[in-house]
Description:
This protein has helices spanning 2-17, 33-58, 66-79, 81-90.
Amino acid sequence: MWLVLVVxxxxxxxxxxSARILLVGPRREPKSAGWRLLELLILALLTLGVGFxxxxxxxxxxxxxxxxxxxxxxxxxxxxxxxxxxxxxxRSRSQVREFxxxxx
Length: 104
């Protein structure tokens, strides 16, 4: 369980830390909110896949209703709040520096 939570915490903050599309694509200055939301959704699905894989490996996978997926998405968005604050609220736009910038 802790492994899935750590993976979710890291994955939920990744869209806010990089200006690259899907973390490996071309740089976008500034990257639009639509791209960040798409990345957040894709990373949420990958994290859910990791959780399902671990559950299946440990035993039988249980069927989940829509409530589980709604709660999991809400938790994932909540875990991404530190990255959102770092990107949009804490620092001014002139001071934002991406992790994948070349050192000059």
